[in-house]
Amino acid sequence: MVRMINLTGAMISYIISLIVKKALIYGMPAAINVEISGKCNLRCPECATGSGQMRRPAGLMSEEFFKKLVSELRPYLLNMNLYFQGEPMLHPDFFTFVSLARGIRLTLSTNGHYLSDENIQKIVKSDIRKIIVSLDGFDQKTYSAYRRGGDFESVKEGVIKLAAAIRKNNCRKKLVVQFLVNRHNENQIQEVRNFCREAGVRFHLKSMQIISPEGFEEWLPSEEKFRRYYRDDNGNYRLKGRLKNRCLRLWLNPVVTWSGDVLPCCFDKDAEYVLGNIGKSSFREIWHGDRNKEFREKVLRYRAGIDICRNCTSGLKGVII
Q1: Which of 58, 151, 219, 256 is 20 to 30 A from 77 via CA?
Q2: In the predicted model, is pLDDT for residue 319 greater than 80?
């Protein structure tokens, strides 16, 4: 009941903010992304972490920070996403964190390289309700074109075993294979779709975010419907659609990095717009603080003027996200 009341308050404050063009904040966030690990085992070229373009240090969240976050937000959260940048299951205390968040609906997004038999059994018995596994190809060559350093067969086998364990234990969990469409793998979409059907898991296509200028020619799919970007008359690639001066995500789903920094959303990869740090303030103080209000009001005035928003698909139509 408290969680639904909190969500209703957040939605009302968002609607009023759109009308009066001033950031109002009621309640607490209904969801949150927690960067348990800022490190990764892969070297994906259009990922800030994997490509080495990340300007902030990579690290692992402390148990102290996670406990503080959970204790304050547990009454309000409808969902906690255990991912941001990095591979969450790389953290040696990953399942300790999962246990600490008991009672909160958890979503895990992983590259699938840590789906050992032991870890699969722990996932099955945990409060993780949704598991997203990235599988961007259906052979080693195609898969590793983007997931550099990855092992296709290992991930495929992990998906099969996890799906079987979920069925065997009659778990109410969603297992989703996410396919990041790019020029190298778009011809294998149907193969992966068929694999998911046979394995009994959901299949989700996702368009690719490009962060490097040279990446457009390398990675953009040939089929227009899979692209996030179009090429303008000057030859520059731009995000499809028009950015409206609004973003519901800012009222519902912030991010906390491994170091405790609170960010407005998941597009702030380099933590350029830190709202505060949970090691220095309570989350409530940060959420209702001046920095958060100021950032929201910038979005309400001119969202396209904020650099992280210019590569954001939130609220755009006609884009597979």
Answers
A1: 58
A2: no
For 292, the enclosing helix (H) or strand (E) is helix 290-302
| Cβ proximity of 52 and 262 under 8 Å | no
Calpha distance 283→255 (Å, rounded): 11
- Distant-in-sequence contacts of 92-95, Cβ < 8 A, 24+ apart: 92/60, 93/63, 94/36, 94/37, 95/119, 95/122, 95/126
Q: Answer whether 254's CB lies under 8 Å from 265's CB.
A: yes
Q: How far apart are CA 146 and CA 136, in angstroms?
A: 8
Q: What is the pLDDT of residue 281?
A: 97
Give the least confident one: 47-51, 76-80, 199-203.
47-51
Phi then psi for residue 224, to 5 deg, are -60, -35
Flag whether pLDDT at 126 surpasses 80: yes
Which residues lie below 8 Å from residue 156, measured CB to CB, with a gap of 6+? 135, 195
Q: Which amino acid is at 246?
A: R
Q: In this structure, how many other beta carbons lie within 10 angstroms of the beta carbon of residue 185?
A: 25
Nearest residue to 108 (alpha-carbon basis) of 135, 136, 127: 127
The tokens describing 215, both together, are 């990446």
Instruction: Phi first, then psi: give them for residue 48, nearest 5 degrees.
Output: -60, -40
Amino acid at the residue 296: R
What size, in residues, is the chain? 321
CB atoms under 10 Å from CB of 75, counted, come to 12
Four-residue CA torsion sign, 256, 257, 259, 262: negative
Q: How far apart are CA 279 and CA 34, in angstroms?
A: 14
